[in-house]
Write a structure and sequence with these properties.
Elements: E1 6-10, E2 15-21, E3 27-34, H1 38-44, E4 49-53, H2 58-66, E5 71-75, H3 77-80, H4 90-101, H5 114-145, H6 158-167, H7 174-206, H8 209-214, H9 222-231, H10 241-248, E6 252-254, E7 263-266, H11 272-292, H12 299-304, H13 309-330
Parallel strand pairs: 1-4, 4-5
Antiparallel strand pairs: 1-2, 2-3, 6-7
Length: 341
Amino acid sequence: MNEVSIIGLDLAKNVFQVHGAAANGEVVFRKKLSRDKLLTFFAAQRPTIVAMEACGGSHFWAREIAALGHQVKLVPPVYVKPFVKRQKNDAADAEAIAEAATRATMRFVAVKSADKQALGMVFRTRDLYVRQRTQTINALRGHLSEFGIIAPVGIVNVERLHRELEQAADQLPDAVVALSRDLLEQIAGFKARIAALDDKIHALTRQDDTSRRLMSIPGVGPICAAAVHAFAPSMETFRSGRDFSAWLGLIPRQHSSGGKERLGAVSKMGQRDLRRLLISGAMAVVRWAVRKGASEGSWLQRMLSCKHRMLVAVALANKMARTIWALITNGQEYREPALAR
């Protein structure tokens, strides 16, 4: 009987499917395993390659299985789908994962440590609080507008809503006043939670020399610098800054054929959180340049003279990503680019 050279693992909550294949692709075994028997099964196997999709829980299981001596490979789900045969089921998925992981040109996802996942949870929780705060503010603005109390959009105008609510409290129904005050308390609570997480992120960046150097890049603040550590793999996994920006989804999407190149909008195939932070930071730099004026002869000044602001912001975010890669891999300080003469 052929020896197993790779095991495809289809992850689930309680019932897992494993697919063992030999070096020639021949099926060695197909098994269903319960959650409490999964690690016992892999502990009994000789060290081999274990492939699974990079999905929810994959990093946890990758760490646990790697501790048993196996080599774990995480495959992006989008690259597994072409290998699924006619019927879609757990056994077919496990087989497709094993087959995809054997391809010489396959791209894999780096396994994250528990600390890195914890830092990512800090960012995701902060984003959740920001969205909930925005939803609550919009709900308050909408409810009060029905009673003639209005204010401009933005968190800075919440206090104005509060003042006008208190001034008109005698003319409003008791339920409107009570519920509006309750929404204001929720907004204040979200603000305090966001501020606490911001303080935690800022403290982390102050202790790290790499984050300090990244924050010297225009448009990169403490949150963006810490997000690089939370969401990006080791920069040594990328051959160049362009590869890193492509991983983020900041390069044009190609639809080329017959030797003719067709480039579209950015692919948006990469890490969404970090891409959004870089574009937001780039947009802040663009707005500042529009108001104060970019340096004469600079790349930004030339781009703004002939391109739309959002296009310039995405292009600047691409440059920022390449600069981040260069600073981390080379250990250098940020230097202002030379102006064109």
